[in-house]
Amino acid sequence: MRKGSFNTFEDLECWKACTEVRRFITELVKKYPKEEKYALVDDMKRAARSTTHNLAEGFGRFHYQ
To answer: How far is CA 4 from CA 9, 32, 45, in A?
Structure first.
């Protein structure tokens, strides 16, 4: 693949990195105490998901097929 040539947002290095962080957060929050389940854990999971969703949305916004 040429530098700067992307077919999908999944080709972006930043999306791949965010996906790794998302998986790490998912495994990490499983170890948190039950009383944190609906406070800190929920916020961490939503933030981790948000990064990949925002990258995908931004890629589609300026990518014409």
So the answer is: 12, 40, 30
